[in-house]
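Sequence in, structure out. First:
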Amino acid sequence: TRPDRSGIALQPEYRWKSRYNLVVLLSKSQNDLALGADTLFLAVNILDRYSSKRIVKRCHCKLLGGVALLLASKYLNRLSTASSFRERCCLFSGYELQDITQMEKTVLLTLDYLVGFPAVIGFMQIELLDFQQLKPLYDMMLYICELTLCYSEFVSTPAALIARAAVETASRLIGRSLGQGEASQDTGDEVRRLLPRISKILSKPPRALFYKYAREERSRVALAVGGYQSECGSTYRRY
């Protein structure tokens, strides 16, 4: 159930910039519809798996994104009725019910009805077992993991590695403000190679994600990232 990045790269109309914009829209829709974070991660996985196997026309990008979010919500039992979801989801604006239904069938057939996957949320919870359960740490990890959804270089990266790199980065950021920021001594080579890439995307997040995680209910973690690159750049440069 891991997407094939090389398959998506062959898309003639659905380019990486299109995907970036669509994932940001999915994040906004997930937030507006008050869906769980796991719904967003599953929706992006569905989107990537489908687009690695089938041609996506530019005019169908939002429709596909909306259907991916709808399927994820159904699978995780996160919506009351499909009709209310369709009415409230901005991604379905301009599409008829038959268009949505047909795309839903096409996606399910393409994925052989395999919707679930090993989500990064589950691996995050495993990683947090070794830490004091601080909400800012969880929110920072979630912010980092959600940022990785936007960028093509992380499409085929295993969720377990992303979660491990997120906890390393988040613990340093949150620990810095608590006077406890220390690097783990058992960080693997694969995770070390991810750290500078995560540092890079933290420096220029999509505006919608920045504001989403700059809010009080998300512990204002986006605001805590300032100065992180200059502080850690010399540490990561050797990798």
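Second:
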Amino acid sequence: MSETQTDVDNIFLNPGSEDLTEATYRQLLEMIQQGRIPTNMPLQERALAAALGVSRTPLREAFSRLVGGGFATRVGRGQLIVKEPTLREYLEILQLRILLEGESAFAAATRMPTAQAQSVISALTAHRQGRDFSASENHRIDNLVHQTIAAHCGNAMLENMIFDLRIKARTFDQNGTVARFEPGCQEHIALMERIHAGDARGAREAMVFHLSQARAGIVARFTAI
């Protein structure tokens, strides 16, 4: 029996193996997005397997998916790292996000229940009033806004593309730009208010403005160095 046939048979005989690999892969993506896996540092297989409570087999399969998805790369001696994008790569990612998330916001404005939109607005208002603009809290709020909008765009492929691009963007300058945290929150509120009002065009414009401001802030900061 060929090795390929054996792999196929294993999938059918052990259907849970694919689920475990998928779950491990998604957990790794979350860790990257949260900054819990630093960029440009070798991934520690044993430590990650213990942290995720999995064996090395699904972890290695998940590693392969990270490489295939462009989230990680292999360097000297086969070590795997989450590579930080260059400034140019980051700006290209942002340009794609502007195009895709603008359309996502447009669609979500006619699909998201008003109660859901109001819930996000309330969370944003509490965040602004609490004035906790730490990197971790900013990431949590940013995820809440962008993932909620993408989840209501009515297009699973678009939602997944946005998810992947946001993770790749997060690997650039992982702690973010502190000066952008408070204005970013205000932009998020304006965006969610447009969605709450069912204003599709306004939601698209607010999303494009928000991401364009993020891009301008990064360009200004790095050109000043």
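Remark: The mean pLDDT is 87.
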